[in-house]
Every structure is written in structure tokens, then in C-alpha cells.
Write a structure and sequence with these properties.
Number of domains: 5
Number of strands: 23
CATH superfamily of the largest domain: P-loop containing nucleotide triphosphate hydrolases
Strand order of the largest sheet: 9-10-8-11-16-7-17
Helix content: 40-55%
Shape: globular
Strand content: 15-25%
Length: 772
């Protein structure tokens, strides 16, 4: 099957013949050697680095040329870079590196890399301006002390040209291989056929919209029902569009591990097809899941996989890019073991050379996300796919939310000594005064108090100074507090009406205990943080079975104004699903006790009418347990099994294993929990669901402040809808979507609450449902 012909669309011209590479990127490839050394030192932030460079430039005076652009075509490479500054009269070229801590603590292999970068700049400048020799100054700027440590060398143009030629030679073979791979990849993608022969109903519509969005460089918001094959329906068309749109990388982002596996399975299927494209596919996982030696630190003196990492990396990298088929976590682990390198950092290196990266949302959307940083540094043209995108609102809120607990501060200040202890004591005093002054146990403030922000920054600076001087000698709890405080402080810098600053006060143990408080910068609208991430892609497709209403996601995610929204037709028919609304039952908090008996009766009657496997969803564990107990009392003939708090992987599998083909019973689960989405129980493994709630978030102080903020930002009606109604109904539709998974499935859904009969609620339910 083919997709729409893009011949009539505006198509970018072919890339120039030379292989484009930044000076920094080439040197990282050719000049890195020795150990992987990630001993923690409080390195400057990006903003501090920018300010440090500006300070140095301001000191240079007349005749100083900052941000000097340099380029050359050499050995099949188009080499480009920007040196920090040049004084022509003095014949001095400078490269500035910012740092904290002791100068002598900068690792030797880091300095070697910095020198390599500066020498390449020097060679390019001599070549560009016909200089016979040049003075090179590697200037290390201490951001706290505002001092410079220059390392100066004089080199002839001839020596620098020889050094440049060596670096080009080291990279040229790799560049030729990359160009050959790209040509083979794009050629195969142009003739790639859909692996299933024909599209499912709805799948073709989805694929066509993804393809058109890619050709037009647009963002697509696609609501597509479960069961049409959304993973292949998005991957295939974006890969087909890649050659014509010169897409360098495709990032497939998921909220859960099960989504990553579906993507890897789809890519494996494409790899097995006749004439399959030679796609390089890797999976990036969290560090704690990939680390082979969690008891060791990430440096050569501690971890054997860090020792000599960059010396062994070239062989591991070469083996990885020649591997057949995708490289999921386990395959990467085996390859890393064969070359005695760290699998986690090998995956990060391979992200530079992969065609498709499968990862969690945070690897692109988080404030310090690897994939976004690499895309910006390398100038990649990126195609982004966001799976189960309804989860992105809450996940992004969590990424840009930070909390500090005063109880932790009280503990860590006892561990500290010297300057950090004094700064922490001051922070504690300021914090305690703020907590004591609050008129209520929960309070939001329009602005962060200046004295608190100042005390927090002083504590961070004091701990940072101690870390720089003795990184191995600081207590772990103090270090963890430092990380949390730094994250909190950075969010304070970007604080605005997209977030709340709130204080939750609690009384400590004992009658005379002083109050303590939890401070929170709580993101409500992640749009300002996500907008630059969407803008940085060539095309983005966000897809899910529940993306209604469109405006809710446009507003909260900050999608571009020209985003295209589509509601993909369902492959299912109303006759497959009986939707029953229990208008005689209210599940409101004040009616919970009265609702239990009619709910148990309804479940018993449905089971008697059609025995089989059912899921029953409730708003809390307490509600769930009380309903299950009454059902057991009134209908002991109905088998049942219950979700428990904190279920591990084995317990989760055991719960799902009860849903056997031909089995019978009721599984009780919490709406919005681990069984409310992302599980697949086709056929008679699941024939119905009872949903005893609208899934509305609880009415509490935090949510009420959110409602007020949403109303002020988006309109009075949207205040309630954005805070309560839309998030709640999203959970309902996801849970109900467990019942019909294939075109041959049949089942029943009982929506238990009179509010399901309201027009404003009914319009948020899938259009193919026919509710009674």
C-alpha cells in the first residue's frame, strides 16, 4: 500500500555533498579518550555559562572579535564552528570554559578535548586569514570567583594544519560510512511497503494524516481508537516521509515501558520485510534500569565499565551501527558487555548515530533532556511521535514541579559542617518564620518571598563550594538535598502564572513541636516549557485514544497555532458494545455508602445474565474494597480478585493472569491506576466493565487553586472543565477501552452515575458508542 503522493508538495532540496559536522562534535568523536568520569562537581548552569562568557568578553576591550565563525571543506567534510574570541592585533584566539571548584580537579582528558577543539579553531583561522602562526589561549573561568586561568600556547599554521588533517582523517571514514548509510536508508524507505499488506479500518486515515503533517512540517493531534494499530500507523508514514523531508532522526516517545515494546516490535517487523531499510534503532532507558554496577560511582577509579570507556567506545560504536535489527535494552546490554563499556552511556553515545530512538517522554521534554539537547547541538531535523499523548499533561507537570520538605532540611543541617551548616541554619530560620506566619495549613502565595529565595540560593552556593573542594566527602542526604534545592531554585527563576507556589504546613510530633512546612513550585500549565520542544521539531504527531476536547490539549501542551487535529474513524461498530448508564445511582462522596448496595446488585445481575470476565473500576481503594466485600456477601458465587496498593510486577501479572479465555469473575481496580490503560485482554478474556465514578480529581485546596488559575487563564467554564471534568472522563474512556480490542470482540460497559446521562458528559464519550 502507498501513501499520498508528495510530488506536488514543496520538497527541500537535496543536502550538499560534503558531510556537515560541527567542530565540537568532530572533536568529541576523535579526541575523547580515557575514562568516563562523572564524579559530581557542581558545574555551571547553561545561564551561568553564558554569563561567564559575556564577562570574559567584556574584559577584553577594543580589538576583540567575539563569536568568530569559522568553516572549511576538508576531506569530504563541511566543518563549521564558532570560536569564542579573537584579537587580531595580538594574534590571539581564545576558547573559554566555565567551571566551579578546584582548577586541578578538571580531568586531564577533559582538558585534552578542550585543547583539540581550540587547535581545530586555530587551524581554520590560519587557513581562513593566511596566518603563519597564532597564539592559542584556553581560558578557564571560575563562575563563583570570577577569576580566569589562561593556558597559552603558540602554534605554527603548519603544525595546526597537520593536527586538523589528523582529526579529519579520523572522522572521514566514519563520515563516508554515515553518508552511505543515509543514502541506503533513504533509498529503501522510499520503496518500503506496508508490512501487513493492507491497512486496518481507520489505520490508513491515521497514516495519511501523519504523512501529510510531515510533508508540510506541521504538528498533528490525532485521536485514534484502540485496536487500529496506532504504533505502526504512525511509524510507517513518518519513515516514508523521512527521505523527502530530510528527517535525520525519529524519536518515538512513550509514557510506559509497554509502549516502548510495541514500538520496538513494529520496528523489528519492518526490519524483517523484503528490501527492509537498514534502520539503526535503539532504546534508551532510565539509568537505574541500565546500570550494571549500582553500588559504584561513574568514574574509572570505581567502576570497571567507566575505566577506559572512551578507549573502548569506538569498537563498541562500530559494532552497534552494524548490528542487524533494533537494539532494545537487553541487546544493548549484551553488546556493551562484549566491549566492557557502560550500557547506559553507550546508549547515549549511540543516540547520535541512530535513525530511530525509542524512549520515555522525559528524554525529550524534561528540562535537561538528552535528546532535545543533542538535537539542538547537532542541528538535527527531527520527526517526533508521542504515544498515549493524553498522559503528557500530567507527566510534564511533574517534570516542572519541585518540592522541598522542611523535615529533610532539619535532618541534613545536622550533617553539615562549616559554611553549609551556617547557610542551612539561616534557610531553616527563614523557612520556619514563613511557616509560622501562614494563616492556614495550606496557602498559596502570588510571589516567592525574597528572603526565602535568597536564603535558598545562599545554601545552594555554600553546598556547591564544599562539593567543589571535597566532592567525595559530603553526606549522601546533603547531596540529595542539594540536587532537590537546585531543581527548586531553577523553577523559581522561571516562575509565572503557569505554576503555583504553595506551602503545606504540618505540626510535628509532640504537643510542643514547632510547625514545619513543605514548599512546592507546582506546575499547572506545562505549555511554556513544552512550546520550544515542539518548535524544535520538523514535525510532531501526538496520538491517543483520548484527546478530547482538542482545545484542552492545545492550551495545556502549548501546541503550535497551526496544529492539525483529527478524530480517526473507529474500526468498531455500536453493535459490538452495549453501553448502559446507571442513572439511578450517584457515586458522589456524600452518596458513597448508599451506592454500594445497588452497585453490588448491578454487578451480580450482569454476571448472572452473562458469566465471564469483568473489570470493576472505582475511585479509591477504600471504595473498591467496600464494594467487593458487599458483592462477596450478597453474591458469593461470583469469583473476584482485587488490585492492592503498591503491586509489583509479579503481582500485576498474577492479577492479569486471572483473565483467561473462558474464565469468569470480576477484577476490582482503581480508575486511573495500572489496570485502567495499557493492558490488552482481547476476546473473552474480558467481556465487560463497570465504571463506578466519573473519575473526577478530588475536591481539595490544591485542585481548587488550579481551578481558579485555569478560569483566569482560559475562561470561567474552562476552570472546572480543565481541572475536573476532562481529566476525569479521560480515565473513564481509557478504562472502558479495555473491553473492545478487536473487530470481533463484543462486550458491555456499565457507566455507574447519573451524571453520565448529562449532555456535557455524553459529548466527551467516543462517538461510536451508543449509550442506553
Amino acid at each position: 500500500m502507498s501513501l499520498p503522493d508528495a510530488a506536488t508538495e514543496a520538497s527541500p532540496e537535496a543536502a550538499p555533498a560534503p558531510y556537515p559536522i560541527a567542530v565540537r562534535a568532530m572533536c568529541e568523536f576523535t579526541a575523547k579518550e580515557g575514562d568516563l568520569d562523572l564524579r559530581f562537581t557542581p558545574s555551571p548552569t547553561a545561564q551561568e555559562g553564558i554569563e561567564g562568557h559575556a564577562t570574559v568578553a567584556a574584559r577584553r576591550g577594543a580589538g576583540w572579535q567575539a563569536e568568530l565563525s569559522l568553516s572549511a571543506e576538508l576531506g569530504g567534510l563541511l566543518l563549521r564552528g564558532r570560536a569564542d574570541g579573537f584579537n587580531a592585533a595580538r594574534g590571539r584566539l581564545e576558547e573559554v570554559k566555565t567551571y566551579r571548584g578546584e582548577f586541578d580537579a578538571i580531568p586531564a582528558n577533559h582538558r585534552a578535548l578542550h585543547w583539540a577543539q581550540l587547535k581545530v579553531y586555530g587551524a581554520l583561522l590560519c587557513r581562513q586569514q593566511g596566518l603563519a602562526q597564532i597564539e592559542l589561549a584556553l581560558v578557564y573561568f571560575h563562575v563563583d570567583k570570577q577569576t580566569e586561568t589562561p593556558l597559552v600556547e603558540v602554534h605554527t599554521a603548519e603544525a595546526l594544519a597537520a593536527f586538523l588533517a589528523l582529526q579529519v582523517q579520523r572522522f572521514a571514514d566514519w563520515a563516508a560510512q554515515e553518508q552511505a548509510h543515509r543514502a541506503a536508508r533513504d533509498g529503501a524507505l522510499q520503496s518500503l511497503a506496508f508490512p501487513h499488506g493492507s491497512f486496518r479500518r481507520g489505520q490508513r486515515m491515521l497514516a495519511e494524516n501523519v504523512y501529510r503533517a510531515a510533508v508540510r512540517g506541521r504538528c498533528l493531534l490525532a485521536q485514534a481508537p484502540t485496536g487500529i494499530g496506532k504504533t505502526m500507523g504512525t511509524l510507517f508514514p513518518l519513515l516514508k516521509a523521512a527521505p523527502g523531508q530530510r528527517i535525520d532522526k525519529l524519536f518515538f516517545l512513550t509514557a510506559k515501558g509497554s509502549g516502548r515494546q510495541l514500538a520496538l516490535d513494529a520496528l523489528q517487523l519492518l526490519a524483517q520485510a523484503d528490501g527492509a531499510p537498514p534502520l539503526r534503532v535503539i532504546e534508551i532507558t532510565a539509568r537505574d534500569k541500565a546500570c550494571e554496577h549500582p553500588d559504584k560511582a561513574c568514574h574509572g577509579d570505581s567502576c570497571p565499565l567507566a575505566r577506559g570507556f572512551y578507549d573502548r567506545l569506538p569498537a563498541a560504536r562500530a559494532a552497534a551501527v552494524q548490528a542487524a535489527g533494533p537494539l532494545p535494552r537487553e541487546a544493548l546490554r549484551e553488546l556493551a558487555a562484549a566491549h566492557a563499556v557502560c550500557p547506559y552511556y553507550l546508549a547515549q553515545e549511540l543516540a547520535r548515530w541512530a535513525d530511530v530512538v525509542v524512549a520515555d517522554y522525559n528524554h525529550y521534554f524534561d528540562g535537561s533532556a538528552l535528546l532535545h539537547a543533542l538535537a539542538q547541538q547537532q542541528g538535527w531535523r527531527v520527526g517526533l511521535l508521542v504515544d498515549e499523548a493524553h498522559n503528557l499533561v500530567d507527566r510534564a507537570r511533574a517534570m516542572y514541579t519541585a518540592e522541598l520538605d522542611q523535615a529533610r532540611l532539619q535532618a541534613v543541617r545536622h550533617e553539615a559542617t562549616g559554611l553549609p551548616k551556617r547557610a542551612l541554619n539561616k534557610l531553616h530560620k527563614t523557612w520556619a518564620a514563613l511557616a509560622a506566619a501562614q494563616p492556614a495549613d495550606y496557602q498559596t502565595l502570588a510571589q516567592v518571598p525574597d528572603d526565602l529565595a535568597t536564603a535558598l540560593q545562599q545554601a545552594i552556593a555554600a553546598i556547591a563550594e564544599q562539593l567543589a573542594e571535597q566532592p567525595e566527602g559530603i553526606a549522601s542526604e546533603l547531596l540529595n538535598f542539594f540536587f532537590d534545592a537546585t531543581h527548586f531554585a531553577r523553577l523559581l527563576e522561571s516562575f509565572g502564572d503557569h505554576s503555583l507556589f504553595d506551602i503545606t504546613r504540618s505540626q510535628g510530633g509532640g504537643a510542643l513541636a514547632k510547625p514545619s512546612a513543605v514548599l512546592c513550585v507546582r506546575n499547572l500549565v506545562p505549555a511554556p516549557f513544552l512550546q520550544p520542544r515542539f518548535a524544535a521539531t520538523h514535525t510532531t504527531t501526538l496520538f491517543s485514544a483520548t484527546l478530547t476536547p482538542t482545545q484542552f490539549y492545545l492550551d495545556l501542551l502549548g501546541l503550535p497555532a497551526d496544529t492539525v487535529a483529527v478524530d480517526v474513524e473507529s474500526p468498531f461498530e455500536a453493535r459490538q458494545l452495549s453501553v448502559q448508564v446507571a442513572r439511578h445511582i450517584s457515586t458522589r462522596w456524600q452518596h458513597r455508602d448508599a451506592s454500594l448496595a445497588p452497585i453490588a446488585r448491578l454487578i451480580g445481575q450482569q454476571y448472572a445474565q452473562r458469566p465471564g470476565n469483568y473489570l470493576a473500576f472505582f475511585s479509591s481503594f477504600d471504595y473498591l474494597q467496600r464494594a467487593a466485600a458487599l458483592l462477596a456477601e450478597q453474591h458469593p458465587e461470583v469469583p473476584q480478585w482485587l488490585q492492592a496498593r503498591g503491586m509489583g510486577a509479579a503481582e500485576r501479572e498474577a492479577f492479569l493472569a486471572r483473565f483467561q479465555e473462558g474464565g469468569a469473575g470480576v477484577g476490582f481496580a482503581v480508575l486511573g491506576g495500572q489496570f485502567g490503560e495499557g493492558i490488552d485482554l482481547p476476546g473473552r478474556r474480558l467481556i465487560g466493565a463497570f465504571i463506578a465514578t466519573l473519575g473526577l480529581p478530588p475536591l481539595n485546596d490544591t485542585n481548587e487553586r488550579m481551578r481558579e488559575r485555569m478560569a483566569a487563564r482560559f475562561g470561567k467554564t474552562q476552570g472546572y472543565d480543565y481541572t475536573y471534568l476532562y481529566p476525569g472522563l479521560q480515565k473513564v474512556v481509557q478504562a472502558a477501552g479495555r473491553v473492545i480490542r478487536t473487530p470481533s470482540d463484543e462486550g458491555v460497559i456499565h457507566l455507574i452515575d447519573d451524571r453520565f446521562g448529562r449532555a456535557e458528559v455524553r459529548r466527551l464519550l467516543p462517538s461510536w458508542w451508543s449509550a442506553a
